[in-house]
Amino acid sequence: MAVKKRIFGYAAILTLVLFILIYSFNVILDQKREESLLDRVDDLFSDYEELQAILLLSDVAQDEKMTCLALESSLVYLNRIWETGRKIDTYQSLNEEFLNDPAYAKMKQKFNRGEIMYFSMLKKLKDECNVDKTVIQYFYKRPEECGNCDAQSFVLTDINKELNEELTIFAFDANIGGPAVGLLTTYYNMTEYPCMVIEEDMYCGLHNKDQLIGILCRYGNLSVCS
Amino acid sequence: MAIYTIFVYVVWFVAIYFTIVLLLLILSNRKQLYDSPVLDESKPLPKVSIVVPAYNEEKKIAESIESLKTVDYPQELLEIIVVNDGSTDRTAEVVSRYKGVPNLIFIDNKDNKGKAARLNQGISRARGEFVACMDADSQVQPDIIKKTVPYFRDPKTSAVTVTVKVNNPKGFMEKVIEIEYIIGLSLFLKALSFLNSVHVTPGPFSIYRKSVLKKIGGFDETSITEDLEIAHRLQRYDYKIASCLTTYVRTIIPESMRGLYRQRRRWYSGALITFWQYRDMAFRKKAGVFGVFLPYIYTVMVLGLILFLSSSYLGLTDMFHNLSLYAHTNFNFFEHFSLKDIDPLSVSVFGVFGLSSIVSVFLLAFIGVKLTGQKIRSKAKGLMGFWLLFFIYQVFWISAFFNVLFRREVKWR
């Protein structure tokens, strides 16, 4: 019976070790997720700094062609913005602390700031270099406060995949996006979510894919419009 | 931490702990798994009776009797008692063909009273010191008596179970159930026998000490799982139930899912009723490990069921939510997903816990098949699908709970 009793003890230890291993794996995974997001957001910022440096140089040289070349190179980074934003949301939902995790909230704020910087750059690019790229500013809130935001994000992800080269979507979290996002929502006098601003026109409420494509086609000749 | 998360951790812990205990028990006793006492043929051998209750078994009963005729035991010390339970088919006619077999007794009842009643009737006629009870759709190995009788040398031993094998499994589900039988009705019972906690003496073939059966009042004729009930009663009376893996009985299993559902609904309803009937044994010192094992296994089962229901609810809600999202993109499934979207960092902790549970079940099945000396390749299909049973059986357990709670009648057949 002594051997049998020992088995119960060994089993308890083994189960505990296995539990700790899996739990630790999850903790490591959480760290990796955070690191991966931080890297992505940092990349966005360092790329932005690089572009700023080129812009300064082109301003000094007063060469419009150089400015446009520099700004056009930023388009590559713009394509990654929506994907990074979605990644932050996905990883945030996997984190046990979910919305209350300060690390993710901080990252989201930083990311939204980065988005605003790129948004400004894109605006300049459109004005000065005649770049034909449709821009959507998408404002959303957490699901408890906005029943349709999840669906709108899904539609935008789908459209972004289809029109990645022709479209840039900046997604702003109105809950934790920080003061810069707050400023934008006040500027647009936003009261309803989800809400999209396309070329200064506001479209609030849920729009499905067909509706959104119809709207987008009013602003540019996209490949899906023909 | 969310309540659901804690609940998942608790269920995972109790279930994995149980699996590990089982694995350790099997592995630490692997050398004794196939140790069985040898029959001393130099001494006078005891008389043995085999009782075979039959109800509408015209297709299988002949095979069963043929297999019994091959049993390697002195014919004058072996009697076969076939008890007809008011069959409406040609069972009586088929059995009558064996009238020439000198040690075969046929009790041809015209009324239907159920398996337990017919077992008791057969036992009352039996002259053997030991009585084996066998299903009419099963076939035994010739050495089954010589291998099981020596266990009764221990005066505390009241019953002996044997390995139960699925007869000629063909389809995928049959191959999966074959693995379940290897693990659940053979290796698991052997492991429990090391703890003196065998909770069932399987119906296809189990052998009992007749004096004990008489002392405890025979089979419970009101029980829908008489083989489970009698094992619990033997445990209550502090008798020992041994398990023999060196011989086996082959039995048939339901061919259709509907048949399997009906069989398992009866088994599980019977298990719940029996557990309730013997609830006083839980945590009773006199009941030993059985007293702990019994509530533990039902706790695992109930917690697993709650987890299954809650996860199913969450999973289905999630699925409908996703479908509603796709509705906004004209169900553009293929464009939304691409291989580059697969992100290993998106693995959730629940996914890892779930996967580890499946792996542990698979490991148990793999070791089980290996230890029972079978070729992994020949059992590959069953092994691959073994974990599926845990999902299917949850549905059967829910049905059984409903039966018991709402006192719906579950018939033996």
Brief overview:
Chain A is an alpha+beta fold and 226 residues long. Chain A has helices at residues 2-61, 64-73, 75-94, 102-129, 149-162, 179-187, 209-217, and strands at 134-140, 167-173, 195-198, 201-204.
Can you tell me about this structure?
- The complex is a heterodimer of chains A (226) and B (413).
- Chain A is α+β, with helices and mostly antiparallel strands and 226 residues long.
- Chain A folds into two domains: 1-127, no CATH class; 132-226, Glutaredoxin, CATH 3.40.30.10.
- Chain A contains seven helices and four strands; from the N terminus they run H-H-H-H-E-H-E-H-E-E-H.
- Chain A has helices at 2-61, 64-73, 75-94, 102-129, 149-162, 179-187, 209-217; strands spanning 134-140, 167-173, 195-198, 201-204.
- A four-stranded mixed beta sheet of chain A has the order 2-1-3-4.
- In chain A, strand 1, helix 5 and strand 2 form a beta-alpha-beta unit.
- The mean pLDDT of chain A is 84.
- Chain B is an alpha/beta fold.
- Chain B has one domain (1-327, 347-413): Spore Coat Polysaccharide Biosynthesis Protein SpsA, Chain A.
- Chain B has 14 helices and eight strands.
- Chain B has helices spanning 3-28, 61-69, 91-96, 115-125, 144-148, 172-194, 210-216, 226-236, 257-277, 288-327, 333-336, 349-371, 380-385, 389-405, and strands spanning 48-54, 78-85, 104-109, 130-134, 138-140, 157-166, 205-209, 240-251.
- Chain B has an eight-stranded mixed beta sheet, with helices on both faces.
- In chain B, helix 3 (91-96) links the parallel strand 2 (78-85) and strand 3.
- In chain B, helix 1 (3-28) crosses helix 10 (288-327) and helix 9 (257-277) packs across helix 14 (389-405).
- Chain B starts with a helix and ends in an 8-residue tail after the last helix.
- Chain A binds chain B through residues 3-4, 7-8, 10-12, 14-15, 18-19, 22-23, 25-26, 29, 32-33, 36, 87, 90-91, 94, 96, 150-151, 154-155, 157-158, 161-162, 206, 208-210, and chain B through 1-2, 5, 9, 12-13, 16-17, 20-21, 24-25, 28, 194-195, 289, 321, 324-330, 332, 335-336, 338, 343, 345-349, 352-353, 356.
